[in-house]
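So, can you check this record?

>
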Amino acid sequence: MLWFLVLLIPSYALVWPVVHLSEPAYQRVLALNATNYYEVLGERIEFSGRGGKLQFRCYVRPGLEANLSTRGIHANLVFLLALLLVTPGMRPLNRVTRMALGTLLLFFTHLFFIITKVEITLLTARHPLAGSEAFWQTTDNFLEVTGKGFFPVAIWLTLALPYMLGALDRRPEPAPTGPVGRNAPCTCGSGKKYKYCCGK
């Protein structure tokens, strides 16, 4: 386990610049999806992202504007990708697939985090668009108690636990190039003898 922690540091340093460069695009996608969420609810709240902050503006009277920091969000993404990068036993394609899936799952937790903070802001301002105080206050307390590091670790464990327990991606065995005996296993991988499968 010590080697895993040692590799995590250069992995984090490798992933951080890539995520940092993608931060403005990630903010725009977050802002667009948060705006779409409130449009579906029929509420006019628009989001825009700039400089490490996500700004939202409520057009229902009384008007309201506020900024939400997204710095912790991007640190989460770096942490998750670094964990997946050093997880042993994955083939490169499988690793890339799991990193993409992990990013998508973490994106939804970030979106939920943003919506929760907006609802808490609306509740604090006693705005008419504010939702259920009990639900959003409980949700916000849960997010604060678990901390921002909970979701990357939970997603990583979901995607990588079999590998951490020793599983390996198996490479397909190459088909034999020489002549195949009639009683040998068939080269197509059916599990039948060659004479009953492709050797008919």
Observations:
- The first strand starts at residue 45 and ends at 50.
- The mean pLDDT is 85.
- The chain is about 60% helix and 10% strand.
- The radius of gyration is 24 Å.
